[in-house]
Specification:
Blueprint lengths: L1 H4 L1 H29 L1 H20 L5 H17 L12 H16 L2 H7 L10 H15 L1 H10 L8 H29 L4 E2 L13 E2 L1 H21 L3 H27 L6 H22 L7
Antiparallel strand pairs: 1-2
Helix pairs in contact: 2-3, 2-4, 2-7, 3-4, 4-7, 5-9, 5-10, 7-9, 7-12, 9-10, 9-11, 9-12, 10-11, 11-12
């Protein structure tokens, strides 16, 4: 019943993410179509192809697949570097998140059905996609980059895109870590414990963690950070800081689950969105402390 009452939070997350990102994609697609048509064609084409595959695999509803396509296109446009190659954009970490999440979700499906925690047959809803991937798109978006570059807050404006994508990559790493840790933990983790009290609880309890699940989540975050950093040629700094942000967000997610979600103040979509935001914020704090390549 509490989740039904909090359904407005899922709609709010979708409303925060989709209109802004969709408008940005339309504007960027038009701009790139004029400047370099190949960028627009590859970005829109591959994003739609990924959406179609996701829908055909029943990993997402049609609306969720479309939402994922818009977010993927936004991330790809915001990470274009020349000479242009589609596999040197954010498409790579998005694909890795998708593959890791799909494998983990299908792992031990019968056991999860008995626990009542298995994903619905129709796949993820649009709000779930927005909650998991939306903040990465918002923080990395081209319009966000332009606005921050124009504020004069950064002494080295040319580094803004790299800094923001490091934050976006951390958000993607957290999204993968959260899904993988939860799904693997239910199958291999045994009886989990609450992150706040360490008391033993039933599998699937909000805020519960297990050693196997946590280890799987940390590894998943590392894989996303590594592949994303290599694809974007971000170097060791981007990889390590994005990984650290993803791991921070993983534990923050469990903390929110054990407190505000347990008390019916937040639903799962809100928790996921805030956790990806915390991952991005933590990575930006680290980047403020650790010199980013190119800053003297």
């Amino acid at each position: 019943m509490s989740q039904i009452k909090l359904a407005w939070q899922s709609k709010f997350v979708l409303l925060v993410v989709l209109p802004f990102v969709a408008a940005s994609v339309v504007l960027q697609a038009h701009w790139w179509a004029v400047q370099d048509a190949a960028v627009a064609i590859w970005t829109v084409g591959l994003s739609l192809m990924l959406a179609l595959i996701t829908w055909q695999l029943r990993a997402a509803t049609p609306t969720a697949a479309f939402t994922g396509a818009v977010i993927t296109a936004s991330l790809m446009f915001s990470t274009v570097i020349f000479p242009y190659k589609p596999w040197q954009t954010a498409l790579v970490p998005v694909l890795v998140v998708f593959v890791l999440s799909s494998i983990a979700t299908r792992m031990g499906r019968e056991q999860k059905k008995r626990l009542g925690t298995a994903e619905k047959k129709g796949g993820r809803a649009a709000s779930q996609v927005a909650a998991n991937l939306g903040f990465a798109a918002l923080v990395s978006d081209g319009m966000t980059q332009s606005w921050l570059t124009g504020t004069g807050w950064f002494p080295h404006p040319s580094l803004v895109p790299g800094l923001l994508f490091a934050a976006g990559l951390a958000a993607l790493a957290e999204a993968a870590a959260d899904t993988v840790s939860s799904e693997v933990g239910q199958v291999l983790g045994g009886r989990p414990r609450m992150i706040t009290s360490l008391h033993s609880v039933e599998a699937g309890t909000d805020g519960a963690i297990s050693l196997a699940g946590t280890a799987a989540g940390v590894i998943a975050a590392g894989i996303v950070a590594l592949t994303g950093g290599l694809a974007l040629r971000g170097g060791v700094t981007m990889i390590v800081i994005s990984w650290a942000g993803g791991v921070f967000g993983l534990f923050f997610d469990s903390l929110l689950g054990a407190t505000l979600e347990q008390r019916s103040r937040l639903n799962n979509d809100a928790v996921n969105f805030l956790s990806t935001a915390s991952a991005a914020a933590f990575s930006l704090v680290l980047l403020a402390i650790v010199p980013y390549p190119g800053v003297n």
